[in-house]
Amino acid sequence: MTLSAEDPFDDFVLLTPRLIIIPTPIAVSLASYRALYSDLHANVAFCEMAFGHHLPAERWSDSKTLEVIQQRDIGRCWKPRGMGDFAVGRRMPSTPGSDPRVQDDRSELIILRGQDLVRLAGPDNVYFENIEWVGYAGVRDATTTSMPAREPGDPALPSWREMVELRYGFSPQVWGTGVGQEAAKAVMQWAVGERGVLRFIAETERENERSGRVLKKLGFVSSATDYWKEPIVCKAQETILGATA
Ligand SMILES: CC(C)(COP(=O)(O)OP(=O)(O)OC[C@H]1O[C@@H](n2cnc3c(N)ncnc32)[C@H](O)[C@@H]1OP(=O)(O)O)[C@@H](O)C(=O)NCCC(=O)NCCS
């Protein structure tokens, strides 16, 4: 489970009342999660909603999925900034190896590490392979990942900790159950508490009303900024520390 010594990544998972949220540097090794990630990106309706014209639906092989997660998320997000996407699955009370103390406290965000994590994961993460995956949620430094290169004359940007992009995508089977909001909130709380994030930004396709509602519930407000230089297609949104509490 542990990455190479150079990686600035300390193994942990997040638990919310209904969800187990696993950083992709761990989840990438789970075939069951890669299958869910591949399915989402092969789903035309999902891709149109999430990415508009940027990323058409495509069926990736397992090796391509592995490569995409390793390059786009672990390589570009987790390694430089210690944050990125998380795999989101249903938290099952009956998961073998679960710490009873953890199962008792389902009211708040729990960050599980060390022996508690080893007990939950089982040998070689065997218990994680059986999780029912429902989607992904993540935070990343937008300035070095999704934003177009800055040009002469562009206004100066705040520090990257004020430019952290929230992103998420869930299987249509779980839409309308609140897991999107629950997972996004957990990842944001983790990013503020554990990585010192000061402000989140997000963009949605204008037609993506569901995502707009999720962002609103998380405290995002429409922004006049044009970080992604796509004012016609997308709505920029931002929230500041404390707005999500
Ligand atoms: C965007 C996306 C995550 C929103 O999904 P969602 O199901 O609407 O969002 P949530 O999981 O937070 O669920 C919220 C809904 O569940 C309902 N709900 C039911 N039980 C709930 C519970 N226990 N807690 C909270 N909400 C609950 C809420 O009332 C709300 O419905 P409403 O918006 O009609 O009022 C999902 O549509 C998606 O993955 N889309 C494709 C990818 C995408 O667009 N990503 C965003 C790119 S910007």
Automatic annotation (TrEMBL):
Annotated Gene3D superfamilies: 3.40.630.30
Source organism of the structure: Aspergillus campestris (strain IBT 28561)
Annotated InterPro entries: Acyl_CoA_acyltransferase (IPR016181), GNAT_dom (IPR000182), N-acetyltransferase (IPR051531)
Molecular function per GO: acyltransferase activity, transferring groups other than amino-acyl groups
Domain N-acetyltransferase: from-to ranges: 159-221
Coiled-coil spans in chain: none
SUPFAM superfamilies attached to this UniProt entry: Acyl-CoA N-acyltransferases (Nat)
Protein name: N-acetyltransferase domain-containing protein
